[in-house]
Amino acid sequence: MNRWIIGLLVLAFFSVIISVSAGDEVSFSEALSVLWHHITFGYGIAPDPIADRIVWQLRLPRALLALIVGGGLGIIGTAMQTLVRNPLAEPYILGISSGATAGASLFYLGFLPPLISKAVSMPVAAFAGGLCAILIVYSVAGGRGHLSVTRLLLAGVAVASLMGALSSFITLSSPEPDKLRSVLFWLLGSLHLATWSALIWPSIAVLIGFVSLIVLARPLDGMLTGDESAHSLGVPVESIKRILIVLASLVTGSIVAASGAIGFVGLIVPHAVRSIVGVTHRRVLPASFIAGAVFLLWADLVARALLPGAQLPVGIVTALCGVPFFLLLLRRSSYGFG
Amino acid sequence: MRQVCLLCLLLIGCSSNFPEGRTVEDDLGRTVVLPPTIERIATLAPSVTELAFAAGAGSKIVGVTTFDDYPPAVDSLPKYGMIPTDFEAIVALDPELVLASEQVNSPKEADIFSSIGIPVYFVAVNTLPDVPRAIRTLGDLLGTSEAATRRAIELEDSLAQLAVLTADLSERPRTLFLINDVTLYAFGQGSYIHDMIDLAGGYSITQTLTTRAPVLTDEFVLSSGPDVIVGSFGPQYDVTKLISHHSTWDIVPAVVSGRIYGLYPDLYLRPGPRLVSGAWTLAQVLHPDAVINP
User: Residue B201: left if φ>0, alpha if ψ -120 to 50, beta else—which one?
Assistant: First the structure.
């Protein structure tokens, strides 16, 4: 284990503590006593019921969702950049987020036939939308037994536009203008719908993604050298590409379903991490996970704090804080890719 | 504003001397040059349509937006899209004046009409007294001041009557007004909704929030503990939906005592004359024993 990763883990722990205790409604000591009460399974005096709900049922699931979503975006961003061997890649590059958004809009604004809309929930609709998009992209790029990265990227951009247009069409022609607001908030990426039960699917998906990528760390290093030399190193390039696409759609689909499309985390974090720990995946992946998690947690803390009593979609904050930082990093560091 | 009204009265008093038209200032402070008489008007928002009807100028309206559905007389009028504004359809109706809402429309749209030579007058309703005030102003502009004054006085009387009923109530429930049930859109500082809640004998807990259209956090609702939650969800709204979306609210006083109500959205979200009956309905919800008959 690298000292950077240990440092990041410690930072993540304290960030969660700060996140659940920050805010006017509950004092720091009260927040800690709520946590202590739950961690010790009810030891000590029962905390104030309002503080208990705020800390344990609102802030903590929200902080954990921020960690899972940020971490998931971090590792999938790394994987996508490796897949297309291009530093501009990010988790949404294959049109997954646009597809998920279109699916969610269709569901939310009541355009699905009643039979279907009764059977699914918004996350399921989002996931199905994301899967649709990736299947189209994949079928275009994956012909003739060889997955062309160029076709993958172009098809991804095209499908993203198509799905974006579809979402806009759905939202603008919606018979219920009031619901538009809710969709808009979600479209910009927000963690405000976090509950304990909403954590289950993203956690499972991100865990599967993380473990699989760690297992594949060595072949992924090989992929950075290019298809042909990776092949000569004995890396099963085509299968790895396919596995990466499946993992990306699984993880981003479940993330978008839980929190909307939060931009820039998956793009910025892997870059920042590589400039610190180097390019080997055994280091980049865990570091990207923790750095993405901590970054999103802090971004959400800012989103919560900017407007008293009200909130902003966290996607706005990740762009506002993340992009200048990214540009600075690009200018300062002299790191190479691959 | 008073100057504008005075100016209008003055101009109407001797309108025959001004064949070339009159210059007035609208609620956005824009200078608007009006033709001497106005017989054809088009509206850009449902709330201004309702205000124009209340001002007695309903018969002068030649077209309304596709969102318009009140009063019933609008059903027989030509309709045009509003998001985005269908300029062609409106110009084809040949209006002499376009009425716009400060809440909904942008002055940029007005520039397009101005370039074609159609004046646009913006109406702003940010407080409850703004409603009769806007009706009087429109009456003056459109030459129907008699009918407008009558209606404005009616509404003012109704508001005053309600104020008497709720003035001495000892209990003023802390009230939360929501626009949406999942994502908690609400009204912040400077909205007429707080006037309505105040007049209805309640205290609006979002009136001090600095954002005009805040999205509330569950934390805010939990810690401010409203006694009553009302939402523009419609009277048919199933309140268990709100509780299931926000499971942590089980200790909020309004949830404990079951005081959650869906209200008819148009009476609250359209800043027009029906806000007055909205205030009455709200008063009945907040004080079912004290306020009985509107």
Answer: left
Under an 8 Å CB criterion, which residues of A touch B? 23-26, 49-50, 53-54, 57-59, 172, 177-179, 181-182, 185-186, 192-193, 195, 304, 307-312
Q: Does residue A189 sit in helix, strand or coil?
A: coil
Beta carbons of B115 and B28 less than 8 angstroms apart: no
Q: Do A311 and B217 touch (CB under 8 A)?
A: yes
Q: Is the pLDDT of residue A89 over 70?
A: yes
Enter the pTM of the model: 0.82
Asked casually if ipTM beats, i.e. exceeds, 0.95, the reply is no
**Which residue of A lies nearest to B184 if distances are taken between CA atoms?**
A182
Q: Is residue B170 less than 8 Å (CB to CB) from chain A?
A: no
CB A201 within 8 A of CB A257: yes
Which of B210, B217, B266 should one mutate to test binding to chain A, selecting the residue with the greatest count of A CBs within 10 A? B217
- The answer to whether B256 contacts chain A (CB < 8 Å) is no
What is the model's pLDDT at position A175? 65
**Across residues A272-295, what is the average pLDDT?**
92
Strands B22-25 and B31-34: antiparallel
By the CB < 8 Å criterion, does B215 face chain A?
Answer: yes
Q: Cβ–Cβ of A310/B219 closer than 8 Å?
A: no
Low-confidence ranges of chain B (pLDDT < 70): 1-20, 292-294
Q: Closest approach of chain A CAs to the CA of B6, in angstroms?
A: 39
Q: Which residue of A has its CA nearest to B233?
A: A178
Among A56-65, A165-174, A223-232, B104-113, the minimum mean pLDDT is found in A165-174
Which among A210, A314, A306 is positioned nearest to A258, based on CA atoms? A314
Spatial separation of the C-alpha atoms in residues B144 and B63, rounded to whole Å: 19
CA-based nearest residue to B252, from B264, B263, B262, B239? B239
Q: Which amino acid is at A191?
A: L
For residue A258, give both structure tokens: 């839980």
Asked if A53 lies within 8 A of B183 by C-beta distance, the reply is: no
Written as one string, the DSSP assignment of B178-247 is ES-SSS-BB--TT-HHHHHHHHTT-EETTTT-SSSS-BB-HHHHHHH--SEEEESS-TT--HHHHHHH-G
Per-residue confidence (pLDDT) for residue B283, from 0 to 100:
95
Q: Parallel, antiparallel, or unpaired: how do β-strands B97-101 and B120-123 relate? A: parallel
| Interface contact B219-A25, CB threshold 8 A | yes
Interface A-B: count of C-beta contacts within 8 A: 78
Note the pLDDT of residue B14.
Answer: 45
The shortest C-alpha distance from A273 to chain B (Å) reads 33
